[in-house]
Amino acid sequence: MEQGSGPLVLLVHGFPESWYSWRHQLPVLAAAGYRAVAVDVRGYGRSSKPADVAAYRMLELVEDSAAVVHALGERTAVIVGHDWGATIAANSALIRPDVFRAVGLLSVPYAPRGGPLPSEVFARMGGEQEFYVSYFQTPGRAEAEIEPDVRGWLSGFYAALSADTMPPTDAPDPHFVSTGGTLRDRFPAGRLPAWLSEDDLDVYAAEFERTGLSGALNRYRNMDRDWKDLADLDGAPITQPSLFVGGALDASTTWMADAIAAYPTTLPGLVSSHILDGCGHWIQQERPTEVNEILTNWLSSLPT
Questions:
Q1: pLDDT digits (tens, 9 = 90+) for 123-180
Q2: Which positions ≥6 away from 210 have C-beta within 8 Å?
Q3: What is the pLDDT of residues 2-28, one digit of tens each?
Q4: DSSP class of 183
Q5: How far is CA 3 from CA 34, 51, 202, 255, 291, in A?
Q6: Residue 86 and residue 107: Cα distance in Å, rounded?
Q7: How many other C-beta atoms lie within 10 A of the C-beta of residue 192?
Q8: Element (H, E) at 295
């Protein structure tokens, strides 16, 4: 989806979303003088959905990002990502600095490749509970939970990570699965977050009902493969001008506080970093006015 003309800004969504998660940013960026383009990531929406799990490795997604820029007739772009899109954006900046001249990260901080194999780290989290990333690893397992009621599952997942509907701190953490249980067991029920209308939910649900969830979940199933593929980038900083915006109530922000603290080393080109009080994970949808102002101010500061 595309709006406006001017320098290209490529917007990359996360899980489980689509280009539609940037609906509040596209017109504002266009009005500010940019060519704003939001893609459906490989495996989502109207983009292709290869059957091979390995087709969703990070190297493939980075090349997708660069190919979109070139297919649009451009040589360079600013890339902005949310959730998994932030990780795709960060690696796109690292691997293709010839294409991506600046990078904006929403919700998920940049943490350089390193440490033990990701699957080993996730397996140690939660004690007797299972971390959601581990739960997603086996093809078909999470699909069996989600696909019989895509709309209901999505509404619960979105609510679980939204500031106004997330479970209280003393409730079971929705990022973990009890033995023999499902993720959905811990989702709040009966109320949509304020940022998500019934019509918005219909848009997301219709796409996943059509495509299934395997393409989206296959991103999680490549984390060990990425760790091996990106060995040459161990500890690598992103040197292009960068931006970070996180939600104060988002687990991605709190769990990765050390990554944010390391930005002077890992993001030496950081222009600005923002933590939005009272905001959850779906940051550009929960707080579109603030995020739009931050994005346009940052973009206007970049060298042309």
A1: 998 788 999 999 999 999 999 999 999 999 999 999 999 999 999 999 999 999 999 9
A2: none
A3: 999 999 999 999 999 999 999 999 999
A4: G
A5: 8, 31, 23, 35, 18
A6: 8
A7: 18
A8: helix 288-301
Q: Is 149 a catalytic residue?
A: no
Is 173 an annotated catalytic residue? no
Cα gap 16→147, rounded to integer Å: 13
- State the pTM of this model: 0.97
Q: CB within 8 A of 63, min separation 6: which ones?
A: none
Q: Where are the beta strands (DSSP E) in the chain?
A: 2-3, 8-12, 35-39, 77-82, 100-106, 130-131, 176-177, 242-247, 270-276
Tell me the C-alpha distance between 223 and 226, whole Å.
Answer: 5
Selecting among 40, 83, 226, 250, the annotated active-site residue is 83
Rounded Cα distance, 15 and 86, in Å? 11
DSSP state of 7: S
